[in-house]
Amino acid sequence: MSGHQTTGRTDHHPLRCDHCGYPIPDEPISTDGGRFCSTSCTEATESGSTLSDLEGYKRVPSGVEPIDSLVPNGMPADAFVLVSGEEGTRRSELLTELAWRALERGESIAVVSYANPPTATLERFFENDWNVVPALEDGRVRILDCFTHRLADREGFLEARNEWTEFVSDAAGDAIVDVSDPGDVREVANTLLGTLEDLEMTETGLVVIDSLDELDALVQDQLVHNFLKDVRATVCKARYVPIFAGVSATGNESVPDDEYVVDGIVDLRLADHLEPEARLSQLAVRKLIGARFLPQWITVEYEPARGLIASVPPADTARTPVVDGEPSQYGSRR
C-alpha cells in the first residue's frame, strides 16, 4: 500500500470546493468555513463572498422533456442556443415552452419579438393552457416589441383589436417594451440590456429571440452577426442568462451558426421517413459547447399544457455522450 497522502480527488466522487463548487485537484485548504481548492476561494469566503449552489446557475434544466433527456446534466447557463427547424416542427411552441418553464421555476423572462405583436406572443402561452397573467402582474415578463413599429398602419392595427386582445394588452401593462427602430440592432441590444437591468436578471432567467429570420430580413448580414456576438457576450457570458433564438432551417444562410457566435444548436426536423402517413417531428442536439449530450434524434409529439414530449423513449440512453462536439467516456467537462 502506498505511503502517499490521499488528496482531495477521487476517481468517482471528487471533493468539491465549498466556495466555487469545482473539484479540488490537490490537498484541500481546510478552515472553519469549509474546505477550499485555493487561497483565492478561502479569502473570498472569509471576506463574505458566497457562490451558493454554483451548479444552479452554471447548469440549468430546460424543463422541456425531450431536451432534458438528451442533456441530462443541464444546459450551460451562459449559452446562446439556436433553435433551428423547418415549418411544421413546432419551433415556436418550443421557444414558448422554454420561456414558460423558466416562469415555472420562479424566474423572469424577456422575449424579443420580431415575428409577432406582443399580444400574439402572449397568446402562444394561452394556446398551450399556460396562464401567464399572474407572471405579468408580478413583473416577471417583458416583451420587446420589434414588430408593431414595422406596420404600415400601426394605428389601424391597434384600433382593430378585439375585446380579448385588449384585455391581454391591458394585463401586460409595463411588460411591453416598445422598440422604435427594430432595424437598429444597437437600439435592440441596448433595450434588451436595460430590460435585464430592470428585471435584475443576472444568474437567473431566460431570453428568447423570435425570430432571427425576421431580423435578417431587416438588416445586413454582418449586422446580424455583430448583434448575436454582442448579446452573447453581454447577456450570456457576462450575466449567465441563456438565450434561445429561433431560426428557420430553410432560412437564409447568412444567419451564422459557427462556434464563435453560438454555443449550441437544437435541431427540429420532419420525420416523414419513419411513417409516411404521419407528420412526425424529431428533435436532436447538434452542438452544445461545454455540456454532455446524447447524439441521437428523439421523435416528439406536442400536447397542450404538456408541451413537447418524447413519443418514443430514447432507444439507447447508454450511448456515448458528446462533450464539446467530441465523444466522451468521462461525462461532462465543466
UniProtKB/TrEMBL annotation:
One of its GO terms (molecular function) is ATP binding. Residues 60-288 form the KaiC-like domain. The keyword Electron transport does not apply. Keywords: ATP-binding, Nucleotide-binding. Pfam families: ATPase. InterPro entries: KaiC-like_dom, P-loop_NTPase. The keyword ATP-binding applies. Coiled coil: none annotated. PANTHER family: PROTEIN GVPD 1, UPF0273 PROTEIN TM_0370. This is Recombinase RecA. It comes from Natrarchaeobius chitinivorans. The lineage of its organism: Archaea, Methanobacteriati, Methanobacteriota, Stenosarchaea group, Halobacteria.
